[in-house]
Structure of Carboxy-S-adenosyl-L-methionine synthase:
Amino acid sequence: MSKPGQPPKQETDRLFATERRPEDFRFDASVARVFPDMIRRSVPGYTTIIPMIEVITEQYVQAGSHCYDLGCSLGASTLAMRHGIPHADCTLVGVDNSEAMIERCEHYIALDDSELPVTLRCEDILETELSDASVTTLNFTLQFVPPDQRTDLLTRIAQATRPGGVLILSEKIGFDSDQEQDIQTRLHHEFKRANGYSDLEISQKRSAIEQVLIPETQAAHKKRLLAAGFDRVLVWYQCFNFVSMLAIKSH
């Protein structure tokens, strides 16, 4: 455990560097230790998306409202939202069901120089109470929610969102065209190789995560967001098979 005032020790992601018994991917302590390195080297555009969450938050946050980071992991998007909120009367809540993630997130929040209070909850986002929101973030989180529960979650978020409020939704997506799917997957794997992952690491990580990370097409996401109660959905960022969308509630 890290000492007070010190950031948690970050390790290089070598979790899949050697042959291992097949098992589903879990956000446990071993993943939490390497997560910053893992996501930076695995998700194209992640280092762009995070600072832009601050920009978007600043544009849409409303005084006296609640802001939520659902599936906050180590708090990268939570901190981005925190720095984008100029109103001292806003409430910022980060939620994750992994105790290991929340524990490390607490350290990063404590070391941050913003004075806006952050409440962290270790609980299932499907059970999180939501209300009076102006900005909510699902940053590569919905893809781990069972598909048959995604509509209910997004509907609850939309119902809790003030007019003029938004949801930032970042996801790994799939494609209807097999040819496009193959091209985008190949480019993603080349991105990983360029960041130092071996073919064994890429293969084993893919096998571990494919049963728990279930991507959908961009069109499916837009359709669901509109059905949930948002009035406009646009893609503000895409790199290969990773996108970030902005869902806006107008009324």
